[in-house]
From TrEMBL:
Residues 188-280 form the Ribosomal RNA methyltransferase FtsJ domain. One of its GO terms (molecular function) is S-adenosylmethionine-dependent methyltransferase activity. Catalyzes the 2'-O-methylation at nucleotide C2498 in 23S rRNA. Keywords: Cytoplasm, Methyltransferase, rRNA processing, S-adenosyl-L-methionine, Transferase. Transmembrane segments: none annotated. Its EC number is 2.1.1.186. S-adenosyl-L-methionine binds at residues 190, 223-226, 242, 262, 278. This is Ribosomal RNA large subunit methyltransferase M.
């Protein structure tokens, strides 16, 4: 068992984006004085960050919970690390370690990374999860009203990092991934990007207030209509801007007006509630166009994707977010994540206060 486990943070991320996730955690660490370091390998789907002490690790986790990093799907604070987990009786090591923490847990998740190696551990995670919860109940360590969640992150069949998260400042899904089914009738799988964005970037109160029937929206680069479909299913009227064809069934809804126009030139005749955009274009150009819409007051809020370059992706994200802040007058509510259904891109929500 590692003596410095409470100095550690563990972040789940998209495989291939470990370096960007590590850069985010390093930036948070630097804000609090620095001295920590990241451990990550390409393709593993997670990053370990070792802070100078447990207090600094806790402060980084708290800041991340408030700000929600772009590349970390879930960020957890370490309790203990096990290097030799017995294959025949894993609970004999896990339960005593967990009992050393005085907190009570609302739930416990046994998880593995969203990677090829991690998926090979998924059956073991499911089997161990039920046994772990039963063991915690026998120890009277489960309290459904508690605000702490226990995480057992299996890094290999015999290696685990036991962690904790505050449920009010962490993703409510194992691995930080909302498991969505492709909706029947949607024109393209890209619809899942916007569905996930609405779940991850907005809370329940915001979705209820900001996605009301009768609202109006614009979808730039709409064809064949995957993102438009998500707005239409909420009875929002959509102007779909694209030179390509829209899905015929979607057009029959009566809620879509299709204009064959350039998404970088179109201007709405009057302000709309929503702008959504998934155009394939350089991220800075998209960010600048979104900033123009928000600055001019053409939309109240926007959700859009930024397609990232192959290199210096973290730097490009920071440049684009800074561009939005600089070009939009007043306070800008800006939230960005790399979603599960994203690939070489991030999704951004922006709203003028």
């Amino acid at each position: 068992m590692s003596a410095d486990a409470r100095h550690r943070l563990l972040a789940w991320c998209r495989p291939g984006f470990e370096a960007e996730c590590a850069q985010e955690l390093s930036a948070l660490d630097t804000r609090f004085g620095g001295g920590g370091y990241a451990r990550a390998k390409p393709g593993e789907g997670f990053v370990e960050f070792v802070a100078l002490d447990s207090d600094l690790a806790g402060r980084i986790a708290e800041a991340a919970g408030a700000e929600r990093p772009v590349f970390a799907r879930q960020l957890m604070h370490g309790i203990g690390r096990i290097e030799e987990l017995p294959r025949k009786d894993r609970l004999s090591v896990l339960l005593p370690l967990i009992a050393g923490d005085e907190r009570r847990w609302c739930d416990a998740w046994v998880e593995s990374a969203d990677s090829d190696a991690g998926r090979e551990l998924s059956a073991l995670c499911r089997a161990l999860n039920g046994a772990l919860i039963a063991g915690l109940k026998r120890q009277h360590a489960i309290d459904r009203d508690a605000h702490w969640r226990l995480h057992v992150a299996l890094l290999s069949p015999t290696q685990a990092l036991v962690c904790a998260t505050d449920i009010h400042a962490s993703a409510p899904w194992p691995g930080g991934i909302p498991r969505l089914r492709f909706p029947r009738g949607a024109p393209s799988r890209s619809t899942l990007k916007l569905e996930e964005a609405l779940l991850v970037l907005l809370d329940e109160r915001e979705r209820e207030a900001w996605l009301q029937p009768g609202m109006r929206g614009v979808d730039l680069g709409a064809a064949p209509g995957g993102w438009t479909w998500q707005l239409v299913r909420r009875s929002i009227h959509v102007t779909a801007i694209d030179n390509g064809p829209m899905d015929a069934a979607l057009m029959e809804s009566g809620l879509v007006e299709h204009l064959r126009a350039d998404g970088f030139r179109y201007q709405p005749p009057k302000p709309v509630d929503w702008l959504v955009c998934d155009m394939v274009e350089q991220p800075r150009r998209v960010a600048a166009r979104m900033a123009e819409w928000l600055r001019q007051g053409w939309c109240r809020q926007a959700i859009f994707n930024l397609k990232l370059p192959m290199k210096k992706r973290y730097a490009e994200v920071q440049l684009c977010l800074d561009l939005l802040r600089d070009r939009v007058d007043g306070t800008l509510d800006l939230r960005a994540r790399q979603l599960y259904h994203d690939r070489e891109e991030i999704t951004v929500f922006a709203r003028r206060a």
